[in-house]
Amino acid sequence: MSAGGAFGGNRGARPVPPEKGVFPLDHLHQCDLEKKEYIACLKLSGFKSENCKQLSKKYLECRMERNLMAKQSLSELGFGKETENDSSNLEDVKIQNFSKIN
Q1: Quick one: average pLDDT of 2-21?
Q2: How many CA atoms lie within 13 A of 45 on its CB side?
């Protein structure tokens, strides 16, 4: 039997957390509305994320405001200045989502 422990694991090694990509789950559902809007947009757009960029930004901002992820500049997350086209897409998606709900 190896000296590394059961199943070949090293008992002395400490786990190292990943730099990005892992953050607390939203157990209290604080950003559910933003998440649902984003997912609905993805479904309506055929999962073309560029059409839902503003909703993605809104969701990440919600998570940062509620300390569900580390605060960092949105430009570091791939968001630049909002263009007029982006904001009109956001309004179109909201209207489509509202009409589907009712």
Answers
A1: 63
A2: 19
Instruction: Give the C-alpha separation, 56 to 21, whole Å.
Output: 15
pLDDT band of residue 6 (cuts 50, 70, 90) is: low
Token pair for residue 30? 């604080």
Give per-residue pLDDT as tens, 29-58: 999 999 999 999 999 999 999 999 999 999
CB 46 within 8 A of CB 40: no
